[in-house]
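User: Please go through the entry that follows and flag anything odd:
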Amino acid sequence: MFSGAIVAIVTPFCDGKVDEKAFRELIDFQIAGGVSGIVPCGTTGESATLSHAEHERVIDICVEEVGGRVPVIAGTGSNSTNEAIRLTRHAKDAGADAALLITPYYNKPTQKGLYEHYAAVAAACDIPQILYNVPGRTGVNMGIETVTALAKIDTIVGIKEASGDLVKCSYIVRDTDDDFCLLSGEDALNLPILCVGGTGAISVTANVMPGKVSGMISAWKNGDVQAAQEIHFELLEVNEVMFIETNPIPVKTALALMGKVKEEFKLPLCAMAPANRGKLSAVLNKYGCI
């Protein structure tokens, strides 16, 4: 159902508030760059520090500005099942095409708890839902058996996998129906995950280079393996520098250096260390981004 280069878009701020003008311009920049979907209010969108009102407003703006040109997959996950249900219902009411739900963080549920959490959201919210597994940030790793069991629920249509485990990705593709989407959640592994049956990626790097990320995935889908591999190698350095500090600090700083957003974060995220900012700037210069 969902494929291609889907951008995990940043949330721009200006003087502590969501910068609606910059956000709309970023959305248009992404669509012009060829992305096949937009994820507002994900990790890269600083969802963990947005107020509920801000979270809902960001999704509303995104749906409105996209205007049906590409799917909007709204981040609606939480470590509280009731809160995830509330946010997911809002996403549906706002007109989002799907919801992306991170595994509950900090409280470290068991695999049974993960299943019951996602099953409860699916039962309460009639909108396509994508699981999101990123154990390096949440402290919990969704098992293969949990994923395959959840994939049997009609509303759950895919998973964003950011565990870095290609064996797990392979099992997920093997053990789920063909219409269940495996989306890469780690830019450095976008091509390898496509190779084991992934349908696309939810990308951080696409914020900065939407054309390149889209081009790599399109080349693969069109059977041009050599072109896909060449772009994959070309993106290695920029993919690496996007995670030189905690995401989304580097990518948001990159967009600020490109003149697209203000270099503003919500605490506890903060400005990059000068040495890392220098490395980021050097890579962006090399790639012709600034």
Remarks:
- The chain is about 45% helix and 15% strand.
- The first strand starts at residue 4 and ends at 8.
- The chain has one domain: 4-222.
